[in-house]
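Reviewers of the previous submission asked for a worked example of the structure-prediction workflow described in the proposal, so we include one complete record here. The input consisted solely of the amino acid sequence. No template or homolog information was supplied to the procedure at any stage.
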Amino acid sequence: MSCWAVVPLKARRFGKTRLAGLLDDAARAGLVQTMLDTVLSALSDAQEIDHIAVVSSEPERVPLGVLALPDPGAGLNPALTAAADSLLDHGATSLLVIHADLPLVRASEIDRFVRAGRRQGLALASDRHGTGTNALFVADRLDFPFRFGTNSLSQHLAEARIRRITPALPALNGLAIDIDTPADLACLLPAAGVSLKPSRWSLTPCTTSPCTTSL
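From that input alone, the workflow returned the following structure tokens.
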């Protein structure tokens, strides 16, 4: 058995544009890189992950030791479908799709998520709002359709029902907390603001709303 993790990575010009009113281009780029490094490090340390791939139209951003897969430019779901097809040729028997903007994710959470998915055949990690999908694990059936986008969790659950799969839905904060909006950033970065420097970033979860999950 060979478990591959796939991390989709947006092109620089599309990275965290909703934070443009809070962070300048350099700060946004630094935040994106910090979160990507965190996710890749957690995947590297996870016992359940055998190999890692990044789907990107900018292969120069993919570090050594990680497989770079092309982004055809037709959207996230077609890119992930193409990646899954490609990884079959690399011997993949199970697949974890995980977003690149999870600053608190830990290897232990990834392992728990994958193990839960192996038991059920499918695992889904909701965002903290209970509407999006921050991670998806599929065992054996790499042809499970990807429905990432608006309200993706309900769409993935619908696809699971069609296939008579009862997915695991583990509540893991590191997989639930992503960074898309200024509210997300302010929750994680006590000193968030336009003058914030990467060296001052503190990726520590707050203990009050809106940072708590709704799972």
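The first strand starts at residue 3 and ends at 8. We consider this example representative of the routine output the project will generate in years two and three.
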